[in-house]
Write the structure tokens for this entry.
Amino acid sequence: WKVKFNNSEPCFLRLRSDSDLLATLLVAPGEKVEIQGSMPGFALNYTVKGSEGSALCRELNLQLSGTSRKLDSLFVQLDKASPEQRTAQKLELGKIFIKQKQKSTAFIIRNIRSLATAMALYQKVSNQIPLFGSDQDLFLFQAVRDTLTKIYPNSSYVKALSADIRNIEKSLNVSQMAAMMNQAQQIGAPDLKVTDRFGEKVSLSGLKGKVVILNFWVSDNVDCRLFQKELRDLYERYHTRGLEILQIGLDTDQAQWIQSIQSLDMVGIQANDFQGARSPAALLYNAPKVPYSF
């Protein structure tokens, strides 16, 4: 089947079969989108071509589906568990939740100029628990709003996001996962110790209490260099509110690394152990490519 419609800005579409949601699409003007999949399990096996925004929506949904299945399984076990088992399972629930939140945060930072980031802000695991519902998440909502307002000032989605942010600023919406998150905070993000450009030791645990963006980069990568503008905008807006950016360079040439930091006017804490892809920090966080952020 085929569907045609006129839109002056990117818009979300939902593909349904009866009451089942099969796919969420984000279609920009002029795009010719092709979707293929099979039933049953269409939502997990479909492919999409011709629409970058729709591909991003698919990435988000597949990622979240996997996390929700893990959490649903643990919730079932939790009901049958002994008191000792419940403690361990609650910690595991918190760890899974935080890992998904880190992935979604990285997605938002990488794709902050896409309306798909608005979708990411409203993700829920197990159909009930919002990923972004704590007071520290407000800066992400504001960053997405500020960026998308410049690109899509007349978008109904951006206007709705702005209205929600005003409500969040009045009364922050804390999710029911908060207690589990608190239990898992110390193990949610592996600690690392690195040496900054001035020879000082820096650790993630030393930045406790701040919202930290951890970014892996290399100076000769064009995408890494372009990404610095997005990071600079975030830093200038939210550093005074508690945002810190820790950038781990994977260069092996110290002179080239320093020159790039200066020429790109990079913000935040700059660190490097000059071991390249074998850097313990990159291995610890399993960064699959650059730029990559947590």
In short: The chain has a mean pLDDT of 83. Residues 108 and 117 are 5 Å apart (CA to CA).
